[in-house]
Write a structure and sequence with these properties.
Shape: globular
Strand order of the largest sheet: 2-1-3-4-5
Order of helices and strands: EHHEHEHEHEH
Radius of gyration: 13 Å
Number of helices: 6
Distance between the termini: 24 Å
Number of strands: 5
Largest sheet: 5 strands, parallel
Length: 131
Amino acid sequence: MQEDTGENTKILVVDDERDIKSLFEMKFRREIRRGDLSFSFAFSGEEALSYMEGHASEVVLILSDINMPGMSGIELLKRIRVKHPSPNPKVMMVTAYNDDDYYQQAISNGANDFLTKPIDFSKLKEKLEEL
């Protein structure tokens, strides 16, 4: 797990694909440099829950993949909502499949938003400005 520090909007990205870290750091390099956003990365649902134990009050948004080995993003969402009810952290689910069933599961379990892969980073940036 990687963590940045600073007073800004803290986002936890949960994805089993480790290259997501460098992709986010590249796409958001200006926002990170300015101190507007900071990202932490968890590479499994279990790692995300462990991170939230010590950082729940800091994290404004969790951006989680749905399809991961072990704990799925939907299961992670359920556990987060039990321990950390809305409004914060906001949870945005991400999947490679534009599947209505996944969308319904995510929304019914407390997700605030839903994105499909590949992530449209300009759309994501717009959504982050609304936080």
